[in-house]
Specification:
Growth Hormone, Chain: A; mainly alpha; 491 residues; globular; 2 domains
Length: 491
Amino acid sequence: MSSSAPPTTRAVSPMAVLVLVCFAQFMVVLDATVVNVALPSIQADLGFEPSNLAWVINSYTLLFGGFLLLGGRAADLFGRRRLFVLGVALFTAASLLNGLAQTPGQLIAFRALQGLGGALVSPAALSIVTTTFAEGPERTRALGVWGAIAGGGSAVGLILGGVLVEALSWPWVFIVNVPVGIVVAVLAYRVIPESRAENVPGGFDLLGAATVTGGLVALVYAVVEAGEQGWGSGSTLGFGALAIVLLSAFVLVERRHSEPLVRLGILRVRSLLASNLVMLLAIAGMFALFYFATIYMQEVLGYSPLESGLAFLPFTVGIVGGSVAAQTLIRRLGIRGTIIGGLLLAALGLVLMARITVAGNYATELLPAMVLLAAGMGLVFVPVTVMATGGIDEADQGLASGLINTSQQFGGALGLAVLSTLAASRTEDRIAEAGGGVSRAQGLEALVSGYHLAFLVGAGLMIAAAVLTAVLVRREHVADIDPEQAVAVAA
């Protein structure tokens, strides 16, 4: 097995490293949602057709999700700091180009470039954290901060997007990244030590990289198309089939390559496999809140973009609070118990969201549900990330980081496609039951009914993730992660 390169001999401040990579990760996570509240302004200013507007989001998702695994492994092989800086530079340059875009085609292309930059940053940043902090309490505390950033950044994006669009204009949701990105890229060379996997005899697995990246891009595209065209459409089925072919070819290539891009044996590590499946399901469920609650507040309750963004402020606070509490609960309940408790709390929050009405009351309907969901997800992010990266050889930390980031990104895309399809179908059924022509009030009732179904299915995904954790994770599966914590895990 290849070993990790030793750190440089100059003094390194682990806390400075953590702050720096968290700034970069916050920028990437925030950008996944900050654009949402700017979409109406972008459509009016650049002349987007309604059918093409979603590609401002989808082009970013497509490249980000498709290249995460490649980005993670490339960080191991070519240098984690090097890939981190390259990703930040690419993300920053693309952000500037997005702010200067003059046509729909330019914005979609530059958003894709921005997604590629994010795919290099996220796994490199996480692997830098896991190789900087020793496994155990130190790493758990660091990942607590990371979990707060991962969960809270999405909610902050909605708030910041509303502020920037109303106070300035939509290009600023992109331009705001530029000074932050420049500072992070420059400081990274001074603060972050270089590390990589050494003694790789087989060279870079180019064919494996091509097949897995092509397969993941096709898979994400198929999911995106399913949300827009339907699960039975020719485009969805065609790209789904292409994804299966490419990913199957990838498995064959990896089995025969002397130094594969992904050692398939790593997927036999029960803690890593369980953490990725749990992350996929949990994020799929959480997207029910971000997507449907945002539309509900603006389309049904009549909130402005700024008001709907500020309404998510308690979610950010809840995520941070849950992430901090997770560091203590892991010691008391163990990794397994903390994950299950967090997932059940998040599921309860989504069940409460299914009580929203057309009249709507933020304090009694939205706020309690939002806080419960946020706190639950804060409890989940930390132990899942610990489980995904713990007990893994340092030479594979980039790969493990790429896997968990891929699960998170694909979970969001899949959740959005499935839940939006179910919600739209429920709404259409309610309108059909009303006999065709419906009043605005009846239309809103049908719309909210669709949201109810989405929230309940999201809760079901959380519960399924909790059951999966209970079934797959046992004491011996986390014993190598942190013996002090693992003794608290129920057999």
